[in-house]
Amino acid sequence: MDIHSHYQKSAARALHLNLHLKANFENHTLSGSAIWDIESNGDDEIYLDINGLEIHEIKDDRGNELPFLVGEADPILGEALVISGIKNAKQIVITYTTSPKAEAIQWMEPQGRSPFMFTQSQAILARTWIPCPDSPGWRFTYEATIEVPAHLMALMSAENPQTKTDDGIYSFQMKQQIPSYLMALAIGDVEFSAVSDRAGIYAEADVIEAATYEFAEVEEMIQAAEKLYGPYEWERYDILVLPASFPFGGMENPRLTFATPTIIAGDRSLTALVAHELAHSWSGNLVTNATWNDFWINEGFTVYFEHRIMEAVYGREYSEMLAALSLRDVQEEVEDFMPSRPNDTKLKLDLEGRNPDDGVSRIAYDKGYFFLRLIEETTGRARFDTFLKGYFAAHRFGVMTTEMFLDYLKENLLSAEEWAKIGVQEWVYETGLPENCPEVHATRFEKVDEVVNAFIASGALPDSNLTANWSTHEWLRFIYKYNDHSEKTTAQMKLLDENYGFTQSGNSEILAAWWQPVIATQYREAYPAMEKFLVDVGRRKFLTPTFRALKESDQLDVAREIYIKARPNYHAVSRQTMDELLR
């Protein structure tokens, strides 16, 4: 039962989608038809999810008009599209147009650049551009024909072209079954660059060279992942680098990961995000959370898998730095949530009457990761790897609830003694972070902490030999630990900035971390750069802590002044979060 979808109300089933759409950049709409192959199963009506779509007409495969009803609009769920007279139909043909305000779609026509458009369907935004069963618990295959302006290329979460067509018409096919939130479309003036026989990069001309260099090790990651948990089932793994307004770090659309340009640092130091999206090819895309209450099934597994890929490629010392950052994130999230929303610190959520985006927190990602890491440490890595490989094989192209996973875990891995030792029920169904959370041994961070403490105590910069070979993660640890100290001063900030150039860094992760002490000390010299960052970058991970820090330091007027300028550049997903934060 999916509380976020109307689709569950009928016995009829939608099996395969044939999509025909034309993109109109002038009025910011997609228009055309969605043709669904269906099985009525004796039912005479089918319920689909829509939100803001204009439905023109609906016919069956013989051309007969079918009566339909658009239900009352819900502010979260949108509307139910109830189609009748389907008992003898093999197909339903829905002709429709999207709203210019469709929340999944961002239309961009920047001055001096080619127009760009992309969709973001997770969690329940596919219904704003396709009439569909918009539930992660239902999978289908699809094909599509997309018509775009002739100088642009269309790409989807499917088999993709590598060169532009002359007429702007592109055909797509996805043979593997996917849930609706993995439906994706992007249109832009992009080029393709191969990094291996089965992996490549799409990006605009001024980004393609840097992106190709940054992601050159993708094939190595794919091979490392396959050695761990079985074959890559999606044939190709390509990456599309989107404009900076993309609200997430990445989106695991099968065959075509959508990625933010903020991970292009020039030194391949932020490619853990690529490992994360690649890991989703197993955890999430291959075995999918059945409802958004089970979101940790997607993300906890993926963070665990991401860290294992990074360990295989770069070593344990490196992956332990990622684990330490994960631990910090989840501890901060638990501390933030416990006073007002403690139930959101459980792995198994209850999102009844709420937007499923409320479940997108570090709890699902990092508490889920540490739960799985604890299972690994309790059973031993060899046993746990065998279990996970079998889990993905047994449930491939299927869905998984929390309860189904726990049953499978008890049946195939954990003894009663191990179950009790781990405290499975507490980890999944209780609030907070259990006391037996695994310890992280990030030896490289211990050295960073010594440097920070010495700087705070003496005010003298560390010997350059100590910091010369630091990775992005070590600099992040440096900034985080410095920000934790109550003795921060603007004089120290100026000294750090003059020597390390944080304010002018080309690394978005470092910039986003740096804004925290900038705001705490009101280091005004960095405010123009911070404002430019907040206007240019739409990644919610960076926006939320920065705007929140301004708000909580009695600088709400500064936050709102910047947001007024930045808001038009943000995707609806980011706007919704920032509107709530700054209203």
What would your notes on this structure say?
Helix content is 40%, strand content 20%. It folds into four domains: 1-183, tricorn interacting facor f3 domain (Immunoglobulin-like, Sandwich), CATH 2.60.40; 189-281, Zincin-like; 287-429, Orthogonal Bundle (Neutral Protease, domain 2), CATH 1.10.390.10; 443-582, Serine Threonine Protein Phosphatase 5, Tetratricopeptide repeat, CATH 1.25.40.320. The radius of gyration is 24 Å and the shape is globular. It has 19 helices and 20 strands. Strand 8 and strand 9 (116-119) form a beta hairpin. The chain has helices at 205-214, 218-229, 272-279, 295-314, 316-337, 362-379, 381-394, 402-412, 416-422, 424-429, 443-458, 464-467, 472-484, 490-500, 508-521, 527-536, 540-552, 556-566, 572-582; strands spanning 13-24, 29-39, 45-50, 54-60, 68-70, 79-84, 91-97, 105-108, 116-119, 140-147, 153-156, 169-178, 185-188, 190-196, 199-204, 237-241, 250-251, 256-259, 287-289, 398-400. The longest helix has 22 residues, at 316-337. With 583 residues, the chain is an alpha+beta fold.
Keywords:
single chain; Immunoglobulin-like; Zincin-like; Neutral Protease, domain 2; five-stranded mixed beta sheet
From the structure provided, what is the oligomeric state, counting identical versus distinct chains? single chain
* Number of helical stretches of at least 4 residues: 19
**Helical coverage, percent range:** 25-40%
Q: How far apart, in Å, are the first and last alpha carbons?
A: 34 Å
By CATH reckoning, the class of the largest domain would read Mainly Beta
CATH topology call of the largest domain: Immunoglobulin-like
In angstroms, what is the radius of gyration? 24 Å
Strand-pairing-aware structural class: alpha+beta
Count of beta strands: 20
Assigned CATH superfamily of the largest domain = tricorn interacting facor f3 domain
**What integer is the average pLDDT?**
96
Which residue ranges are poorly predicted, with pLDDT under 50 across at least 5 consecutive positions?
A: none
Question: What portion of residues belong to β-strands?
Answer: 15-25%
Shape: globular
Query: What is the makeup of the main sheet?
Result: 6 strands, mixed
CATH architecture of the largest domain: Sandwich
- Domain tally: 4
The main sheet orders its strands as: 4-7-2-1-10-12
